[in-house]
Amino acid sequence: MSSLVIPKDGDEFKCGESIKLRVETDPHPGVKQLGVAVRIEPCECWCYADGQHGGVLYSGEFKPYYTNGRPELNYHDTFEVTIPHLFAKGNAVISVAHSALVGYSKKYHYDTTSVTIHMK
Description:
Blueprint: E1 2-6, E2 12-13, E3 18-25, E4 31-42, E5 55-60, E6 76-82, E7 90-102, E8 107-119
Parallel strand pairs: 2-8
Antiparallel strand pairs: 1-3, 3-6, 4-5, 4-7, 7-8
C-alpha cells in the first residue's frame, strides 16, 4: 500500500510552481514495482478525484529506496512535478495510482492515495 507523504493536506502552491512529491510504500520482499501515475484535478465545490478534469503530472517508474542516514524517511521515491501555469485557483486534489506485482504468483496489486491542496 502506498501513501502520498509530501505534499500534505492543506499545503498551498502557485500555478507554474515545481513541487516535490514523496510517495512511500511498504518494503515487502517479492514485490515488483510497476509504476505510479500522479494527477492533479481542480475542486470547485467537491474534490471527487474522478479523472475527468485536470491532468497527469507524472506517469512512469516507481523505484522506492531508503535514504542513508535518514531513518525518519520510510521506503519511498520522490518526484519533481510542475503545476500547470493555467491551473485553476482554489482547492485541488493530487492523486497517486500505484501498481505492483506481489508474491510468487505475481498477483496484480493496485492502490490509490490523494491529498487536497490549495492553489493561490
